[in-house]
Amino acid sequence: MAHGYTEWAARLDGATLWTWSGPRDPARLVLPDGCMDLLWLDGRLTVAGPDTRAFAPGPAGGGCAGIRFAPGTAPALLGVPAQELRDRRVALDALWPGAEVRVLTERIGAAHDPAAALEGIALLRAARSGPPDPLTAEVAAQLRRGRSVAATARAVGLGARQLHRRSLAAFGYGPKTLARILRLQRALALVRAGRSYAEAAYAAGCADQAHLAREMRDLTGTTLGGHLAATDYGVAAANSETAQPSGSRTTA
After folding, report:
1. Is 29 helix (H, G, I), strand (E, B) or coil?
2. For residue 131, what pLDDT is reported?
3. Can you tell me whether residue 156 is helix, strand or coil?
4. How crowded is the C-beta side of 150, counted as CA atoms within 13 Å?
5. What is the DSSP letter of 24?
6. How far is residue 126's CA from residue 135's CA, in Å, rounded to a whole number?
7. Are residues 196 and 189 in contact, defined by beta-carbon separation less than 8 angstroms?
8. Residue among 232, 236, 243, 245 nearest 4 (CA)
9. Is residue 184 within 8 Å of 31, Cβ to Cβ?
10. Alpha carbon of 169 to those of 22, 81, 84, 201: distances in Å?
11. Quick one: what percent of the chain has pLDDT higher than 90?
12. pLDDT surpasses 70 at 17
């Protein structure tokens, strides 16, 4: 594994492979992103469910690997509704037969590339389970583009209650929460690309920078400046030197 965090596209549509080596910094939070992961961590296979708040991975050292599934795609593959895994880390043998998981655990433990072995498991499982529901994939796509929940419901031909029920099973939470999480991720991506906090807030669909700051606190328990200082040092410094409107101190 390369030192630190590395990620690259998996062969499974919409999925991402990643590895981490070295000590895990407890200040580096994992933010909600609408995704679910299959992890190889401390010699065990674990599923990370969809988060509604930031998760602190803990200070343990060593390496880990994972495959991150795009929003709405993991439940069919794992065979469990997403809401049952919301804000949880669950051993895979609690979801799949223990004998099967023991074989997979031995296979990955002996593999030179654990991430590639995880990808193989996901590809085989996907071939058995079939593709994810195209309707929920379209819901995620609509919300990712910044469409409102009402407009998304109309676009996919569902009523509000139907959309909420389908979203719980596919994403782990309702469409409003998913929309907020995806909007926050859009804003963070724009900041990392060099936009100021105020510009990123507006482009991502927030009312203003103060709105983005509140969303960051509500969904993660931290601030934009605090998070970026722990993960993207140069970005946080650049924003701190950018002229910003009233309220900018709430993000630092």
Report:
1. coil
2. 85
3. helix
4. 0
5. P
6. 17
7. no
8. 232
9. yes
10. 35, 5, 8, 29
11. 78
12. yes
64, HSE (Cβ side, Cα atoms, 13 Å) = 20
Total residues found in the chain within this entry: 252
Average pLDDT for 63-91: 96
CA dist 5 → 17, 38, 126, 177, 249 (Å):
11, 16, 26, 27, 30
* pLDDT score recorded for residue 67: 98
- What tens digit of pLDDT does each residue of 213-242 get? 999 999 999 999 988 887 754 444 445 433
- CA proximity to 212, closest of 188, 242, 239, 232: 188
List of residues 6+ apart from 15 with CB closer than 8 A: 9, 67, 68, 69, 70, 73, 119, 122
For CA atoms 21, 24, 27, 28, give the dihedral sign.
positive
CA dist., res. 120 & res. 125, Å (int): 9
* 71-75, 147-151, 162-166, 247-251: segment of lowest average pLDDT: 247-251
Phi, psi of 40, deg, nearest 5: -110, 105
Task: Give the three-class secondary structure for 223.
Answer: coil
β-pairing, 36-41 vs 89-91, is: unpaired
Separation of CA 112 from chain center = 26
The alpha-helical segments, DSSP class H, found in 20-174 are 74-78, 98-110, 114-129, 134-144, 149-156, 160-171
Residue written as token pair 């023991």: 102
Name the least confident of 24-28, 68-72, 87-91: 24-28
